[in-house]
Structure formats: C-alpha cells, structure tokens
Amino acid sequence: MPVSTATIAVPEPARYLGSLVSRLEPDATVEQAGDGRVTVTFERGACVLTPAFGLDVIAAAPDPSALAGVRDALGRHLSEPIAWTEPVAGADMRITDPAVDDYLLRHCSGTDPLLDELIVATREAAGPSAGMQISADEGALLTMLTQMTNARFAVEVGVFTGYSSIRIARGLAPDGRLLACDVSDEWTSIARRYWQRADVADRIDLRIGPAIQTLRALPAEPAIDFAFVDADKLSYPAYYEEIVPRLRPGGLIVLDNVFLGGRVLDPACTEDHHQAMRRLNDRVTADERVDSVMLPLRDGVTLARKRP
Ligand SMILES: C[S@@+](CC[C@H](N)C(=O)[O-])C[C@H]1O[C@@H](n2cnc3c(N)ncnc32)[C@H](O)[C@@H]1O
Asked: CA 140, CA 162: separation in Å to the nearest integer?
C-alpha cells in the first residue's frame, strides 16, 4: 500500500486545516480526532492531516494510481501545489534516517571494546543474519531499563550471540539473574564465550528449547521484573500472554521489531507474522494491565509496564 507525505507551509496550520475541512466535506468523509488530527477518506484512499509546524499530510491508497487520485483530490482544494514525497510501500519505509541512526549510535553509553568485538565476531559468523543483533543504542536502553526496574529476575526471549543478554545482565541488581531463552546451540555457543569474558556468565541461566515451553514452565506468580522479547515474530502474542501475568506490578516487558521494517503500517503486508504483530500492537495498546509506549528506535521498540 503506497504512502506519500508532504508538509504544507502555512502560518497557522490549525486554522488553515479548519477551513480546508469545510471545503473538503462535500467530497469526502471527514473524521476529526480530539488532538486536532483529521482523517479525510476519499473514494480511492485517505489522507491524515496534522497541524504541526506546518500542515503535515499523509496520503495512502491501495495502489499507485489510486494514490495519485487521492493526491489530486486533495490538491484541488488547495491554492498552491503540494510537494509530495515519492510513494513508498511498508516494506521500503525507513523508520529513521540512516544519518539519524548513526548519530544515535555515537551518542549512547555503555559500549566497550568487548561489545564492539562481539559485533564484529557476529558479523563474521552470521553474515547477513548478523542484522538480528540489537544495536548499541538499543543495548544502552536495555541496561538503563533493567536498572530502572531494579531487576532481580529478568527474562530474555531470543539470545542469538548474546549481545542483548550482556546489556541486560549489566543492569541487574547485585543478586539479579537473567533467564535467557533460545533454540540455537550454534549461536548461543558464541554468546556463552562472550558472557564469560564480560564476567556476567554466572548471572545468566541459558535454556535451549522453544521459549514458549520455558515460559510456560515458570511459576505462575508475578516474579519477573524485566523481560525482553526478540525472537520468532509469529510467537510474540504467545510470549506476551505468558509474560504479562508473571510481571510484578511495575515490571516491564520490552518488545523489539514491533514495526517489522514498516510492514505493520501497510495492510497489503498480510503474512502471518505481519498480522500477528499488528494484532499484538493493538492488543498492547488496549491492554488495561499495562501502560505502554512505542519508541521509533531502530525497528520499533514497545515498552509495556505492568500497572500496580
Ligand atoms: C533476533 S535474534 C535475537 C538477537 C539478540 N537479542 C541480540 O541482540 O543479539 C532471534 C533469536 O531467537 C531465536 N529463536 C527463534 N525462534 C525461537 C523460539 N521458538 N524459541 C526461542 N528462541 C528462538 C533464534 O535462534 C535467534 O537466536
């Protein structure tokens, strides 16, 4: 589903949007949200208009010709031409600009020569699969969140070569432990070597096997302070439903890759794991057991904190 965006430079975007809406209403269905955003649905697609520094516009339609129709339909109600971005579909969407990503990497704490070596060793061992490893800025976030929850019992689903485990283990309370779940002996043999060298091996219990079985075998009482989920995407809803009841009040679950490279935004992406992640994102937002926020860090990170 192609999307294109534009910003219309106007001095008073909210007032401008108000008068634009009254001009649009005869030709389209207009829905106004409480925060001032307006969704305009034409026959072939829709636009979301947000008053910000200018008037931000997102146009989306099922195919390129319908998108062109939506852009034209909106343009007919404006006196100046709109500078639209080239249409992109979900799978090609960049969550953040690579230059911004690079800047973030240069401005996070907690990196050290051992973690840098693990990044390089993972690239050499795993080739393109090395992209599964979390980034240094996400690692800094994990250490900070583990510390902030004062975690004594943490759970990780998806270890790979151990980078995120080290970042979590370094944030644990002095007597804290990390239960680390993965199915791969091959990748976790690298993890075990680096845990030894990072001096965190004695805090980590590695369980090899399907994570859902490991989670279901945990006691039912709420004892988990911190959980990080970064494994097979189709199983995220099941991991979430096993972990949330076991979180202590104030405990945190962190879900990685919740944007699936932009595919969750695109209804044309209909593989099982796309649908599962889309449903989970809606479920978390509506879940009265937690307060949640999605961060546009790398491929999207959800933080959900169990309500007291
Ligand atoms: C994205 S990687 C984890 C990356 C890791 N968090 C890091 O920062 O290096 C996903 C991992 O999940 C593991 N995995 C896949 N399916 C699994 C399952 N059903 N149960 C447990 N682990 C699984 C894979 O073996 C892989 O190591």
From this structure: 14
Ligand 1: residues with CB < 6 A are: 132-134, 158-161, 163-164, 181-184, 187, 210-211, 230-232, 235
> Which residue of 182, 189, 215 sits with most ligand 1 atoms within 8 Å of its CB, as the best mutation to test the pocket?
182
Chain center to CA of 28: 33
Give CA 75 to chain center in angstroms. 33
Average pLDDT on 203-230 reads: 97
Phi-psi region of 262 (alpha: psi -120 to 50; beta: other; left: phi over 0): left
- The greatest distance separating any two alpha carbons of the chain, rounded to the nearest whole angstrom, comes to 68
Strand positions, DSSP E, 1-84: 3-8, 29-32, 38-41, 46-51, 55-60
Taking only the tens place, the pLDDT of each residue in 255-266 is 999 999 999 999
Instruction: Please write the tens of the pLDDT for every residue from 88-141.
Output: 988 888 888 889 999 999 999 999 999 999 999 999 999 999 999 999 999 999
Whether residue 162 contacts residue 195, with contact meaning beta carbons closer than 8 Å, is answered with yes
d(CA 231, CA 214): 14
The answer to whether 118 and 170 have CB atoms below 8 angstroms apart is: no
Q: Which of 185, 230, 236 to mutate to test the pocket of ligand 1 (most atoms within 8 A of CB)?
A: 230
141 neighbors 297 (Cβ within 8 angstroms): yes
Predicted pLDDT of residue 90: 81
Query: 206 alpha carbon to ligand 1 midpoint, in Å?
Result: 12
